[in-house]
Specification:
Blueprint (H helix, E strand, L loop, with lengths): L15 H16 L3 E6 L4 E6 L10 H155 L7 H13 L3 H9 L6 H8 L3 H8 L16 H4 L1
Antiparallel strand pairs: 1-2
């Protein structure tokens, strides 16, 4: 009867005693199902006892040694894999930690940069706002100065315009007064010249009407007297009227005046005490024969 080592594969456990107890229980439970079976092949058969669902309990030393070596190799590979995994995990954790630290550092730098940028932006905004306020105040001050200047200039222009208007009004009033004075002088001259002619003209025209009625045999009571007065005014001398005409240069024959009246018209004016019109006096006048009568 062949004998061999009995073994079983287990997972590593942190409590070896509990693991050994569990292996013994498993072996005892599997030993109850041990049966006779043929192993290897039909050419070189070999009879052995083993439990059907598990591995053979009776194996050769060579197979067991191969399995032990394979198990050792597997264990070594698992240890190496675990070591590599631990190193990889360590490197990964280190890389993650470095990445986290770098991310935290970058985040902190970004936050500091953001805070710095925000602080600078606030300072720039405050500076810009202050500059804008100063510019607005300056513009408002300049606008007020311009408004005051414009108002002062407007007042000066208004005063100047008012002064010019007053001067123009005074000038216009003076011109109006001058024209009125000239017109009054002309009218007065004409009146003073025509006033002495009034009685003469009336007498002569009444004589004309009376003479016409005499030809029509429709004479009135006073026609003879009217015709005599008209003849007298037309043919007789009138020193007062002639002095007025000479004074206003309507008659220029001074020699004839002297022959008619024996004196010059200026001497006659002095003798009569007449005040006739002159350009410097609008109060002078000539009296007519009718006024003298």
């Amino acid at each position: 009867m062949a004998t061999g080592l009995v073994y079983t594969e287990v997972e590593e456990h942190h409590n070896p005693m509990a693991e050994l107890l569990r292996v013994k229980r498993s072996l005892a439970r599997e030993a109850e199902s041990v049966t006779r079976m043929q192993i290897r092949n039909s050419v070189n058969p070999k009879t052995a006892y083993a439990n059907p669902p598990a591995q053979s309990l009776l194996l050769s030393m060579v197979e067991m040694e191969d399995k032990i070596l394979a198990l050792q190799k597997k264990t070594a590979d698992q240890d190496n894999a675990l070591k590599e995994e631990r190193e990889t995990r360590h490197e990964t954790l280190k890389a993650q930690r470095q990445a986290q630290e770098a991310a935290l550092k970058a985040q902190r730098q970004a936050q500091e940069a953001a805070l710095k940028a925000e602080r600078e932006a606030r300072e720039e905004a405050v500076k810009a706002q202050r500059q804008a306020q100063e510019a607005a105040l300056k513009a408002e001050r300049e606008a007020r100065e311009e408004a005051v200047k414009a108002e002062r200039e407007a007042r000066e222009e208004a005063v100047k315009a008012e002064r010019e208007a007053r001067e123009e009004a005074v000038k216009a009033e003076r011109e109006i007064q001058q024209r009125a004075t000239e017109a009054l002088c002309r009218i007065t001259k004409e009146v003073m010249m025509l006033r002495p002619l009034k009685a003469t003209a009336i007498d002569i025209r009444q004589r004309f009407f009376a003479t016409f009625r005499r030809g029509q045999h429709s004479r009135e009571v006073d026609d003879h007297l009217i015709i005599d007065c008209g003849n007298l005014q037309a043919h007789a001398g009138d020193v007062v009227l002639d002095v007025c005409l000479f004074k206003n240069h309507e008659i220029c024959s001074e020699d004839t005046f002297s022959i008619l009246y024996g004196v010059s018209w200026r001497q006659a004016e002095q003798l009569l005490g007449m005040r006739v019109y002159s350009p410097t006096s609008t109060r002078l006048f000539c009296s007519s024969n009718r006024d003298r009568q």
